[in-house]
Amino acid sequence: MGERVAIIGGGPAGMIAAGTAGSRGKKVTLFEKNKKLGKKLFITGKGRCNITNYSDIEELLENVIVNNKFLYSAFYTFSNYDIITLLNKYGLETKIERGNRVFPKSDKSSDVIKTFEKYLKDNNVDIQLNSDIVRITKDDNNMFDVILRNNKSYKFNKVIISTGGKSYEQTGSTGDGFKFAESFGHNIINLKPALVPCEIRESWTKELQGLSLRNISISAHTNEKKIFEEFGEMVFTHYGISGPIVLTMSNYINKYIGKDIHISIDLKPALDYDKLERRIIKDFEKYSRKQFKNSLNDLLPQKIIPIIIKLSGIDEEKFVNQITKEERKSLVNLMKQLKMTFSKFRPLNEAIVTSGGVSTEEIDPSTMESKLIDGLFFSGEVIDVDALTGGYNLQIAYSTGYLAGLNC
């Protein structure tokens, strides 16, 4: 009879850990509190599931913002290519898109989850759904007791905690793993939202709610020091800003929380100051007999024009041929540096991932086993590692899950 292994959490880390342990002849039970596996996986990539990223391993590591050195062994032992090979073997066809993002050919995250289920079945994993675990203890015989909310308890030789973080609570990520880890004496590094929208102090952003801006550049500064800059797409919301480059920015600015953070949007990054001024002069010549409020239609999205006019301080009724050189230059500056003040992140529950978690100093990076408690392992988002969007966080889940399943 093989050793009994409990996997707590049926997300990507838990499923890989369970399948890997099962393939080694372990008697594996996978506990999931939801009524189905992979609930958070289901909503990733807008329901298409950005499985992983096809870049080389060094580039994967560069996209891990917190504790990337901890993941060397995990990424090299079970790489992005390994997860693709595994899913292909079980019948899932994949494709590579912009930014080396890997998706299922069908564009359905449900197909990814079904493939993982085949993998678990093939490795004789006992799946216990609707199983809410309230406590894990260890007895004098070195056996773990896993206790459910309905007071049922089970004994195991090894336990792998793969419960996710504390973001998207509706998917079951309610921070249980942190509670279990603390009960065994582990330190939990300050939990913060990562890959999360930002609230902005200026009230004019509310008027732009729903406006998407493409091909713009956004930067963040604190005390005149630039801490982030990237080109791409963003969207204004009722509370501030969101969208791909804003989510990425949040991972860079969350270490500066508590300081004054200023955000600047370059609405025309393809044009330097001189070129933009020449472009505005050309438009002003074209609309010389119109009022200022009717002169920017060729240059900016309709919705943002009233805001730019208000912030420029130029009278909207003024005729274009009366606008001074100084006013025109300040308009150029405004379009190149539309400034906002960061207020705070949206709540942790709205973050794509949780930054912080079980301290990496207390986990063996080559096995994912606790350095404090023999037989206790961790995998996935419960660990204090996080990365940018693009499939990197899911790769962390697979790689750490594999190591835990291989060494339990």
Report Rg: 25 Å
Q: What level of helicity do the residues show?
A: 25-40%
- The count of helical stretches stands at 13
> What is the top-level CATH class of the largest domain?
Alpha Beta
The coarse overall form would be elongated
Oligomer: single chain
Largest sheet: 6 strands, antiparallel, barrel
Spatial separation of the terminal alpha carbons: 15 Å
CATH architecture of the largest domain: 3-Layer(bba) Sandwich
Arithmetic mean pLDDT? 94
Number of domains: 2
Count of individual beta strands: 21
Structural class: alpha+beta
List the strand order in the largest sheet: 13-16-15-14-17-18
CATH superfamily of the largest domain: FAD/NAD(P)-binding domain
Strand content: 25-35%
Low-confidence spans? none
